[in-house]
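Table 4 source record.
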Amino acid sequence: MSVAVKRLEDYETEPRFEATVVTTECITAKGVEPEVRELVIDVDRPSFSYSAGQSIGVLAPGSPEFGHEHHFRLYSVADLPQTNDAGRPRITICVRRCSYIDNYSGEVYNGIASNFLCDLNAGDSLITTGPYGLPFEVPEDRDANLILIGTGTGIAPFRAFVKHLYHDVGDWKGRVTLFYGARSGLELLYMNDERDDFAQYYDEETFEAFRALSPRPNWADPIAWDMALSERGAELWEMLGDPKTHVFVAGIEKMRDELDRVFSDLAGSKEKWKRRKAELMAGARWVELLY
């Protein structure tokens, strides 16, 4: 998580509840790496109530020999609150199978929590904590304009957030503009040929969704935020000057610098964007959920 929210070590990991995997499904296209899986889990605690936009904690088995009994990570809730037939909370999360290369040895290490979760099968158990926070709160004014910017598994909280807007809140009159970044169309989650969950909102007059893809995905080029945002630059800059506009950002931490660069171009200078962003943050209208 970014310091804009909290550090992982700041989170309380008690009490802990056992949960059971109901389903696990790969939601990236065949052959696409890294793999992303959608897990549906039931928490063995009737009072474990949660809201769209919150996160849950997972305690994966750690390395006791190094003094780490558990490895703690947070995952955003990717769907509306549900319960199973027994009244237990049912939660959907997205997990990206992670690995990293040691800069000195060149050895590849697998991410502890992500690989633990991706390797689970239906019926397996895990330990959960939370729920935590509500980084993306629905503005009280239903005329508010929302700019949602996500990348990778950062789309998960927006999937739940948009569902909440149109299913629970209803009668939303403000504009909802989603920008979703990925290296290629195959890596778009919930917005691809196999699982286009956002398609159900395309008929909503207030909803728009745009893709920001890398121009050369096989060359590890950065996501083309400049193309996706600049094409609507004048419109976006006008929205950012509207006191009813809120901006929510979710995804990897390096997004912050990339977006600052693009918005500085839209503003005409770094200084002008710095002032506008400071105004948005001071009014709690620019919120980041980064990791």
